Amino acid sequence: xxxxTGGAGALGAATGLRLARAGxxxxxxxxxxxxxxxxAERITAQTSLPVIGRxxxxxxxxxxxRLIAEIAAEHGRLDQLVNAAGRNxxxxxxxxxxxxxxxVAVNLWGPxxxxxxxxxLMGRHGGAIVNIGSxxxxxxxxxxxxxxxxxxxxxxxxxxxxxxPRGITVNAVAPxxxxxxxxxxxxxxxxxxxxxxxxxxxxxxxxxxxAEDVANAVAFLASPExxxxxxxxxxxxxxxxxxxxx
Length: 246
Ligand SMILES: NC(=O)c1ccc[n+]([C@@H]2O[C@H](COP(=O)([O-])OP(=O)(O)OC[C@H]3O[C@@H](n4cnc5c(N)ncnc54)[C@H](O)[C@@H]3O)[C@@H](O)[C@H]2O)c1
Fold this sequence. Notes:
It comes from Pseudonocardia thermophila. The protein has nine helices and seven strands; from the N terminus they run E-H-E-H-E-H-E-H-E-H-H-E-H-H-H-E. The chain has helices at residues 10-21, 33-47, 61-75, 98-123, 136-139, 143-163, 181-184, 189-202, 211-221, and strands at 2-5, 26-30, 52-55, 80-83, 127-132, 168-175, 233-236. Strands 3-2-1-4-5-6-7 form a seven-stranded parallel sheet, sandwiched between helices. Bound molecules: nicotinamide-adenine-dinucleotide. The site of nicotinamide-adenine-dinucleotide has 29 residues, from helix 1, helix 4 and helix 7.
């Protein structure tokens, strides 16, 4: 049984599809419950597998606990948890205040709540947690976003140590820019073209990452093939996590 947050989003839905194709029963969860249901229906249409869409806010402890209790009651187990729900704030550091709390709540507190609520159910038989970070944890970026994603790496490493004895691995996947609503939102065509060009120039491997590139990395870390890998950050960044070319 796999639970993917941010399941209405581009990377969450691509990951849900990839995990379903690998044989997992998948629940997609999103604060946009209708979007999660639509994404689940699309995957079911593509795979003939019964994927479920559910509404939950990952920052609301009651939502998260209800969700895990429902999975325990309906399925009796949870093998894979992917924390893909995310939020960005692109403004400068100087004018930031509310944004900071919201970004950190979704990107860091949400995964912490999910991991906390899921650990007992997963610990009955072992499992894999994969947190979707970002290249910016290492290279920097918008302050609240980069700080939340660096915090997520800290959480990943701490929980890898704490949950390992219960048979649970905890890893992160850190993508560079993928063209999704997340990166397209609130940008003019010219701004977007400039940002794409800048990211392509930072990448050693030509081009940008795709949602499928990210989903493949998540699926590996969530699979039995990665059973002895924990506490790692797997960059899906074409080398953009290294120094940009001079
Ligand atoms: N697209 C990129 O370039 C890129 C690069 C690096 C990392 N990431 C990370 O990948 C993840 C997915 O990004 P995406 O491109 O698919 O974005 P997206 O905007 O398509 O999807 C994000 C999803 O998270 C959901 N969400 C937001 N707040 C939530 C909450 N409180 N509870 C539940 N769901 C909530 C949104 O409704 C949305 O469906 C994010 O964590 C993002 O930081 C994206």
